[in-house]
Amino acid sequence: MKIVIIGSGLAGLSAGYRLCKSNEVTVFEKDPDIGGMAASYCLEQSGKKYFIERYYHHIFRTDSELLALIRELGLEKKMLWLEAKDAYFVDGKNYPMNTPLEILHFSPLSILDLAKLGLLVLRIRLIQDTVPYDQIKAKDWILDTAGKSVYENFFAPLLKSKFGDNAESVSAAWLIGRVKIRSDRGKEGEKLGYMRGGFNALLEALAGEITVNGGEIRTNKEVTEIVIKNNAVQGVLVGGEFIACDAVISTVEPKVLDAITGGKLELLHDSLKKIHYQGTACALIGLDRPLMEDGNYWMNIKADVPFGAVIEHTNYMPLEDYGEHLVYVTAYFQDKKSALWVQKEENVLDSYLKGLEKMFPGFSRTGVCWKKLYRRIDTAPVYEQGYLKNVLPFTAGPSGLYLAGMFSSTNYPERSLNGSVKAGFESADLLTKTQANKIPEKVS
Question: Which of 157, 58, 52 lies closest to 374 in space, CA to CA?
Fold first, then answer.
C-alpha cells in the first residue's frame, strides 16, 4: 500500500516507522530539516560538532511509549536521568522551587497560602479523570480551591507567560495535566530524562528505519492539497505535482488541514476552526560563562521582560558535551500581530538580551558567543475551556485519511513527546487495521 505522511515531526516519523516494513511510505516535510518542533541545530565549538534542539525538550519517567521506542531503536545507552533544578523569579528575587522546604520560603505567599497550594497539588495528584474539569476554567478552579492570593501571586503569572491573552480561558483539565506530568519529585527535586547527544539521534534513527525499508523522506516539499474525490483520498499535490496514494496521515495543524482539504472534512469543519494554536519565539544563546550561577535549569518569570522562562541547558546536561554554556530564552505569542512574530529577528534577540541584563546584573553581552532565534506560529494548541469536544479523531471522515499530532487525544490534556509518539502509532495501527478489514472487490 502506498502511504503519504505529511510532516516529519515525532508523530509523522513514528507513524512512518510503524508502517514502513509492509508499505511504501513517503514523508513530505515543508522545512529543510526533519523533526518539526523536535528539530535541532547542528553547531560547532572548538572543532567539535554537536546537536541541540531548537526548542528545549525532555522526557518524563511516565513516557512509556517513547522510552520503549528508544529501547527498540537501540538508543537506551544514550539516556540520562538528571536533577533539574527549578526556580521562580518574582519581582526581582529568585526563589528555588525544588524541595518542600524551599517552597516554604516562597515569600509572595503566606504560610496559609502555601498550605493551600500544597493541598491543591495533593488534590491534583489524586484526580484520575480530568474530563469533568474540561468545562471549568483553570482560574475559576484555582480561586475556588486555593483562593485569590494563591491564584494572583503564584498561578496567574505562569498562565500569563504560557498563554498570554488566553490565560484566563485555559481549562482546569490542562492545569491538572500539567501539574501531574511535573510531579515526579523526590526529596532532592525533579529528575528529567534526556538523550545524550540530543533528540536528533532519535529522529535520525526513525528516518533511517523508514529509508532502509524502502521509504522516502522528502524535505522542502510542502503538500498544498489532499485530493479527495467521492469521499476517498486519491493522492496529494506537492509543488503542483499530483502524487497518487492509497492513504494519507496528516500531522499538520487543524487550520492548515482545513485549507489543504478544501473544507471537505465537513464533520470536523467546526472543530478545525475552533482549535486555536499559539506561536513560540525561542532563542538559544551560547555563552562563555554560566548565566544562572546557582545551578538552576528552569526559571519561570514574573517580571517586566518580554519572555516567560529561561532554561539553562548546561545547568542540566554536562558542559563538556558542548564546550560552551547554552541558554534558552522563550516566550509564547497568540497571533500574527504579535511583536514577537512581526519584528525582525535581531530586534527580538536584542529585546531578550535587554531582559537578561535587567534580571541578571552579572550578565554581559561580551559573554555572548552567538545567538539564534526559532519562531513558529503553530507551536501548540491552547487548551481552552471546552477543548475536549474539539479533540480531533484519528480518522477524518474520507476513506484513507488519518490524523495524528498535538491535536490528538494522546496529547490531551497536556502535550508531550510521548503523546506525539503515541499519536503516530495509533494512527498507523488504525490505518493498518482498517485496510486489512476492507473486503476486496469481486473480480468478474
Answer: 52
Helix 111-126 crosses helix 138-146 at what angle (to 10 degrees)? Answer: 120
The 3-class SS string of the chain reads CEEEEECCCHHHHHHHHHHCCCCEEEEECCCCCCCHHHCEEEEEECCEEEEEECCCCCECCCCHHHHHHHHHCCCHHHEEEEECCEEEEECCEEEECCCHHHHHCCCCCCHHHHHHHHHHHHHHHHCCCCHHHCCCEHHHHHHHHHCHHHHHHHHHHHHHHHHHHHHHHEEHHHHHHHHHHCCCEECCEEEEEEECCCCHHHHHHHHHHHHHCCCEEECCCCEEEEEEECCEEEEEEECCEEEECCEEEECCCHHHHHHHCCCCCHHHHHHHHHCCEEEEEEEEEEECCCCCCCCCCEEEEECCCCCCEEEEHHHCCCHHHCCCEEEEEEEEECCCCCHHHHCCHHHHHHHHHHHHHHHCCCCCHHHEEEEEEEEEEEEEECCECCHHHHCCCCECCCECEEECCCCCHHHCCCCCHHHHHHHHHHHHHHHHHHHHHCCCCCCC
pTM recorded for the entire structure: 0.95
CA dist 298 to 26, 94, 102, 314, 387, Å? 38, 12, 15, 11, 28
Phi-psi region of 197 (alpha: psi -120 to 50; beta: other; left: phi over 0): left
Place of cell 529543510: 32
What single letter denotes the amino acid at residue 439?
I
As beta bridge partners, residue 227 has 235
Nearest to 421 by CA among 264, 206, 215: 206
Query: What would the pLDDT profile of 215-242 be if each residue is shown by its tens digit?
Result: 999 999 999 999 999 999 999 999 999 9
Q: Which of 54, 137, 70 is closest to 387 using CA atoms? A: 137
Of 297, 299, 234, nearest to 262 by C-alpha is: 234
Q: What is the pLDDT of residues 169-224, one digit of tens each?
A: 999 999 999 998 876 666 667 899 999 999 999 999 999 999 999 999 999 999 99
395 to 334, 390, 403: CA distances (angstroms): 28, 14, 6
Q: Which amino acid is at 169?
A: S
Query: Exposure of 378 by Cβ count < 10 A (0-12 exposed, 13-18 middle, 19+ buried)?
Result: middle
Grid coordinates belonging to 324? 560552551
